[in-house]
Batch of 2 targets.
Target 1
Amino acid sequence: MKTDFIFDAAQAIQRTILANEHTLESLDREIGDGDHYINMKRGATTVVDMQAELVTLSPEAALNKIGLKLLSTIGGASGPLLASFFMCMSKTLKEHGDDSLPKIAAAFAAGVQAIIQRGKANLGEKTMLDVLIPVATQFESLAALGHDAKLIASALTKTAETGMLSTQDLIATKGRAAGLGERAIGHIDPGAKSCQLMIEAVCQLV
Ligand code: ADP
Ligand code: MG
């Protein structure tokens, strides 16, 4: 992995968040407090504005810097969760290297585990994890089978979409929507939607 790729990914993420303002804001207004778009926009813009600082760093140092910065800028439930993803991904790449797809997949999966631990949620609770867990599992297995990056990117895009759509029929047991009970059914989780958009945007760069 190259730091340039991380920066291109940050720009692609910012573009897709800005292009989906209405969707993200309405989803969080329906089953949350309406701030998810603002939180994600602030996070993405902060990272893009770090360009000069990031390009001088190794990929793992850049990811750690991003995590630390997000911790203090995103806010909401999603801020610390996404921050722990980047910091743990960085730590795993530092320990095991970043020179192959299986290693990058393992670091992504470790980042997702950090979110699970920090937020004490898991699959099926109507959160971003309904996108991130299946994507991490599939990334690791396709990378272990030796598939090329383009095939993996296209499979992960589809899996992220399926995971995002699956949140529509779920009752939330974590986060703000947990208080809504059955009233949350029929609504897609905003964090699942933003994660799906981010994964799609990054996969398109491959
Ligand atoms: P807040 O809920 O504080 O307003 P955001 O609106 O930015 O923060 O983020 C809401 C999203 O955070 C939810 O849609 C959900 O995907 C995610 N989320 C909330 N709690 C958790 C948790 N414990 N584990 C994983 N994701 C969570
Ligand atoms: Mg919110």
Note: Residues 131 and 162 are 8 Å apart (CA to CA).
Target 2
Amino acid sequence: MSQAAAVAGSGGGGARPRVFSGIQPSGEAHLGNYLGAIRRWVELAGDYECFFCIVDEHAITQRYEPDELPGRVTDLAVSLVAAGLDPETCTLFVQSHVPEHTELTWLFNTVTPIGDLQRMTQFKEKSLGQATVNAGLLNYPVLQAADILLYRAGLVPVGEDQRQHLELTRGVARRWNARFGDYFPEPEALIGDGGGGAGRRVLGLDGVSKMSKTSDNTIPLLAEESEIGRRVASAVTDPARVRRNDPGNPHVCNVFSLHGFFTDADERDEIEVRCQTATIGCMQCKKALTRGIADGLAPLRERAAELRANPGAVAEILAAGAERARQVAGETMHEVRRRMGLGPGAGRPA
Ligand code: TRP
């Protein structure tokens, strides 16, 4: 049994352990999202009862354009389905379509110490240098706890940077359970490498920071080959390799590390040796990578084109996802309200 299965919490009560994860609606997904998270989600959907959520209510804690948000949500949903998340085998939905997320957030706020929130690294980073810090930024992790615990998920696949938020979620579950009776599992972060490098930190084209839209160092997941080529051409390689005749060090070169995901082992070994012996230049190496990425992601581009040609298809998937999510969320909230003495049913026998 996998590590994941062994640590799965008892939450949910369904036959398969429950998994929950969330992703910010930053528009079309990029290679870093895919290699670091989405690929992993697709695998998990085969083994667990998975809830995957586009977290638009988290996104609004930072400046945004209301007119653009729905498009960002849809573009991300297209990317996720094109990447292989099958609405038949997992529940894919948008956070704001399930109002129970915000309701549970409020209730959880009452068992969460402010000090714990002020200590969060991400809060400190995001509030740095801002004239006013909105309370949503501080309470961001409480919404995240509500996301996860609303489905009583036992496992949460996330990147290393979310470990602290998961710890906070466990604290919320513990405090709530201590006050209102044992109900929520303490979910485990699922950070492992998942095989093939999934979950590994994927560096951006600058070769120094994590691939992210804000750093503008990404390759869009659904880009055409010409665009992939342009982006790859701009990537930083071994800085010590200045001239074509200088031998390179593939192990400090992010272009070479990207080959690890897209180029078969024989060709990769050859590139490694030829870089070290200066018998291949960076341009040629980048061309090979461009082809590898373009070929590897071709099926995703095709699926995305089909989805886009059928307006309403994505909206239907998300509506069905929200309906399923609300069933589970509704059951949880019923029990939570009852135990907390809230709502018209409170005070009556269970
Ligand atoms: N905060 C997460 C991130 O920035 C996104 C997220 C929101 C999430 N809710 C979640 C991740 C619940 C896992 C579980 O990546």
Note: Residues 20-22, 24, 55, 58, 144, 147-148, 156, 158, 162, 165 surround tryptophan (CB under 6 Å).
